Amino acid sequence: MKKIIILILFVASVSVYAQKQSGSNLTLGVREAIDMGLKNRYDAQSKKYNLAIADNRISKSKKEWIPDISGSGNARYSPQLQGTYIPAHFFSANPEVVALGAKSTAIFGLDLNQNIYKPGITTDVKIAKNGLALEQEKNKQDENTIREQIAFAYLNVLLRDLQNKIAGNDEQRYKEYAEVAEGKYKTGTLIENDYLKAKLDYENAKVETSKAKQNYDLALNSVKYQINVPLETQLVLSDTLNSPNLSFSDLPTKADANNRTEIKQLILQQENNKLQVNKNRQNALPSLAFFANYSQQFTYTNLDYGLKQWWTPFNYLGLRLSIPITANFKNYNSIQEYRFKSMQTDLDIKQRTADINYEIQKTSTELSNALKNMQTTKSNYDLSKIIYANEKQQYNLGSLLYSNLLDTERSLSSAEQNYIKAVYDYLIANINYQKAIGNY
After folding, report:
1. What does the pLDDT read at residue 19?
2. I need a labelling partner for 99 at 20 to 30 A (CA). Which of 315, 327, 339, 367 fits?
3. Are 168 and 296 a contacting pair, CB within 8 Å?
4. Which residues pair with 292 in a beta bridge?
């Protein structure tokens, strides 16, 4: 009964999890979206196995110290024994050939080999640990790329949402123009062509609103794809352009290039080069191993293994010293190769550090400029809306021509587009700066 209850609870939990994954509503901030993407995406899950493989190499290297125990056995039957030459006066006055030995021979034994001194094994463990650290940094870089992709997709939705709202405001204004124009046309104070033009502008504004909504939906689907949730999920983004999660006020004012995973990877590669040099040098050192054997031997004229009196045990043990003679000649080129790689990696570290420092300085300036531009264009946009409201009131009172109102409308539209462009530049600069300082 207890097993049945556990099974029911397990099925229920799986069902709830599935509903959450494909549920009808999902509200996420940018950080929650990133966390969900790292959890759900198959490429992120696949990369984790590289860590498991690297960790397994450490265990594999350490097991080289485990004694090697093996069993062996062979059985042989010789219908005709080999003759052995016996010199004269050994058994008889004349030399002769005598067949000695047993027709049936079998040996079953255990062999043990244990490394006592072999410095290459310790170095192999260090190389494996270095490989794990390198894979961890590579995994971090892969996750940073995923974070960047999700953040960009998330911010793109906020941008498209802003464009959608602005398009809706434009449509509402042109609708009001058309309604005022229709009233004036019916009272005879507006010519038909101006009325038709206002009506056409309203229809065009509706088309732009529809396009903006389509772009918003596509951007939202892109977020769903990036975090790997079903497209039918009703996704709601809780952050806005003014959310604290999207601000960069808490980011460090001074960034260290050594914190970037690219530099850490190069440093680990440099460490691997040095370990490989040591390993090749150690290949020329002597090694010492302990070995032992225990065997049972059967010798008789036939295959009757059940006769215990014909089984005889024997064993031995010893030390094996191996001294390489020509290894130094063979290892010379391998050592030179890793020395060249070490010098090459030194230069790569210096160049990559210079690149990152410049990237940090450049993106920091771009972010500061983008923020100022966004604030300026926002002020211009707010001012243009005030001017528009004043002139719209004059147009409604009949003291302003529709053509003049359209000039103001174009100025307002230009201010809107400048503001949208500034917001877009700010979002891009924000991502680029966070990537430069190692947040992505």
Report:
1. 41
2. 315
3. no
4. 112, 317
- 108 CB burial (10 A radius; 0-12, 13-18, 19+): middle
DSSP track, 168-234: HHHHHHHHHHHHHHHHHHHHTSS-HHHHHHHHHHHHHHHHHHHHHHHHHHHHHHHHHHHHT--TTSE
Between 173 and 216, name the one with better pLDDT. 216
Q: Summarize the confidence of residues 112-121 as an average pLDDT.
A: 92
Q: SS3 for 363? A: helix
Cα(306)–Cα(152) distance, integer angstroms: 79
Q: What percent of the chain has pLDDT over 70?
A: 91
User: Which residue has tokens 């009964």?
Assistant: 1
> How far, in Å, CA of 261 to CA of 264, rounded?
5
Residue 376: the pLDDT is 93
Q: Which residues sit opposite 237 in a β-bridge?
A: 28
Instruction: Tell me the mean pLDDT in the region 210-220.
Output: 95
Pairing mode, strands 68-77 and 96-99: unpaired
> For the residues 419-439, what does the mean pLDDT come to?
85
Among 61-70, 106-115, 428-437, name the one with the lowest average pLDDT.
Answer: 428-437
| Alpha carbon 294 to chain centroid, angstroms | 52
The closest of 31, 50, 7 to 155, measured between CA atoms, is 31
Q: What is the pLDDT of residues 239-251, one digit of tens each?
A: 877 666 665 444 4
How far is CA 146 from each of CA 39, 225, 227, 431, 434, rounded to the nearest angstrom? 11, 12, 9, 12, 14
Token pair of 424, please?
């877009």
Two structure tokens written together for 187: 């009272």
Q: Which two tokens stand for residue 202?
A: 């309203």
Q: Dig out the tokens for 358 from the structure.
A: 């410049």
The two three-digit tokens of residue 144, written as one number: 């940073």
Mean pLDDT of 119-138: 95
Q: Which residue has the tokens 């396009």?
A: 211
Q: Token digits for 217?
A: 């939906």
Tokens read off for 241? 């352009």
Write out the two tokens for 184.
Answer: 């004036």
Q: What is the 3-state secondary structure (H, E, C) of 58-115?
A: HHHHHHHHCCEEEEEEEEEECCCCCEEEECCCCCCCCCEEEECCCCEEEEEEEEEEEE
CA distance 412 to 389: 10
Q: Is the pLDDT of residue 166 over 90?
A: no
Domain boundaries, the chain: 27-66+119-285+324-436, 69-117+287-321
Amino acid at 119: P
The answer to whether 278 and 332 have CB atoms below 8 angstroms apart is no
